[in-house]
Please model this.
Amino acid sequence: MTMTLDSRWMERALELAALGPWPDPNPRVGCVLVDGAGGLLAEGVHRGAGTAHAEADALAQAGARARGCTAYITLEPCAHTGRTGPCAEALVAAGVRAVVYAQTDPNPAAAGGAEVLRRAGVQVVGGCRAADAEALNERWARTVRLGRPLVTWKFAATLDGRSAAADGTSQWITGVESRADVHRLRAERDAVLAGTGTVLADDPRLTVRDPDGRPLENQPLRVVMGRRRVPPGAQVAAGPGILQRLPTHDPSEALATLWDRGVRDVWLEGGPTLAAAFVRAGLVDEVYAYLAPALLGSGAPAVGDLGITTMAGICRLQINDVRVIGYDVRIHAVTKE
Model:
């Protein structure tokens, strides 16, 4: 199928948007300004909360040359004032003739930019490459709908569902390949959360490390939830990056605090008690289960009591992916919103 001119410019805007950060409180957005003769004027990308939006970035580069141009933007220009001003008004002030955007802004606090532009006499076309833009910002849009960070629960277990032996030891159930995979996925989140029980029992670092065990430069926020004290010598308190204590047993309260801090994607590393609390509260969105071809017969289960007493109440997940990693099997499942 032949790609239209609008679609080709939007493809470039999508490439720019993909350069933006995730996780972040803001969506990833790209903007391309094209002059009346069809030539490229400027390109903009949003580089995270507190920085210029993609439209402002491109307009600053174009200056007075932006008058009469067409702007291709992957997300409907915002109509609200946050850390930066409304992009819709900036486009009008710059004299932009037309705006082609992909995805309608799902955030009610920022939506409405298209109408602002139309009232000012700007030609507006929405929905160009909308599916591609929505896929790019799928996780961000889910956080907007939910009003809280996404939660991915990871656990490692034997085939009989044990996450620790009867004496409490749990290292290592899975192999080095699975552990490397966990670090890769951890690095895609902006917070790693565990309970005080796990900290006291396992003394984890909750950092992201390379295959040689070296900490990466960019570290997710390390979060310990619970009312018990974290020992001064605990590894979680000594690692690189920032440690946040949440003295609560309420998963909703913990997520609200993290949301206010700008956290949008949480990697849940807690033991069976904390995992059960999040599952019971309906606050687990994804599960990564690493299953080792091994048996223990007794010991701690992967998850604690969920309050389910009959098969009618079973918590079923949807399988997204199953793969063999080293000698283990990794199951990636998702829950329904």
In short: The mean pLDDT is 92. The first strand starts at residue 30 and ends at 34.
